[in-house]
Amino acid sequence: MDLTISHEQRATILVEALPYIQKYHNKIIVIKYGGAAMLNEELKRQVMGDIALLHLVGIRVVLVHGGGPEISDLLARMGKATAFINGLRVTDKETAEVALMVLAGKINKGLVALMETFGRHAIGLSGMDGRMIRVRQLDPALGYVGEIVGVDPAPVLDLLESGYIPIISTIGCNGDGGAYNINADTAAAHIAAALKAESLISMSDIPGLLRDVSDESSLIRRVKTDDVPQLIEDGILSGGMIPKVECCVEALRGGVRRAFILDGRIPHSILIEVLTDAGIGTMFF
């Protein structure tokens, strides 16, 4: 099969992208990054390239990342068991130190370095920098897991104004400056709301919200926030998708215009969503 793209097809693609570039020019997009797109090195490079392209055409991108699998991997190598309650990692002090090291160190600085290979300047932050993400303990049974009580967008806005791409690891601090682990979807929603972002894009390992979880072709492309309770009651929205969707709803109520859950396993899924007519995944509005 010939996959060569003609010059005319390339021109058509660029023309189709133009109104979206104009729509998002100088607007803020927050991207929550994790899952398979983070673990696969080829996909990771494509994601960073997509973000570099968006930045190059004048879209202000903020990347918020998790790193749960890498935390679990290091804990396993240390011989330390990992436990979860309702999808949240039970985090004692040693685990909190590992999360800080992995998220704010290895993963964050690796993404910054990779972005630099595309000629775009990025700066890595954690929620502890400038006390950007303030938290309190979510549940004593979870240990050092934070519930967000406030986000100061000033450090991120300062970086955006200076032309940098902020890359944020999801570690917050309490009133005493202690490090707390935060769910990445929750952190991205709060950051997007604090920035009054145009869009929040959550990259996942599924196509989006499915009417039938066993059928990826049953994708629901558009969801009104008012319809979410009924989707839960009908059983269409269940399990781990509920907190993801609730984060999208929370972001919209905080002033974000659109929120998306899309399949990070698909190459260039961000560009397909932001710059084409077809779009991809589920949009919440």
Structural commentary:
- This protein is α/β, with parallel strands linked by helices and 285 residues long.
- The chain is built from ten helices and 14 strands.
- It has helices at 7-24, 36-39, 41-56, 68-77, 93-116, 154-161, 184-195, 228-233, 241-253, 269-275, and strands at 28-33, 60-65, 84-85, 88-89, 122-126, 133-137, 146-151, 165-169, 171-173, 179-181, 199-204, 222-223, 258-263, 282-284.
- Strands 5-8-2-1-11-13-14-12 form an eight-stranded mixed beta sheet, sandwiched between helices.
- The longest helix is centred in the middle third of the chain and has 24 residues, at 93-116.
- The model has no long low-confidence stretch (mean pLDDT 89).
List the helices and strands and how they pair.
Layout: H1 7-24, E1 28-33, H2 36-39, H3 41-56, E2 60-65, H4 68-77, E3 84-85, E4 88-89, H5 93-116, E5 122-126, E6 133-137, E7 146-151, H6 154-161, E8 165-169, E9 171-173, E10 179-181, H7 184-195, E11 199-204, E12 222-223, H8 228-233, H9 241-253, E13 258-263, H10 269-275, E14 282-284
Parallel strand pairs: 1-2, 1-11, 2-8, 5-8, 11-13, 12-14
Antiparallel strand pairs: 3-4, 6-7, 9-10, 13-14
Helix pairs in contact: 4-5, 7-9
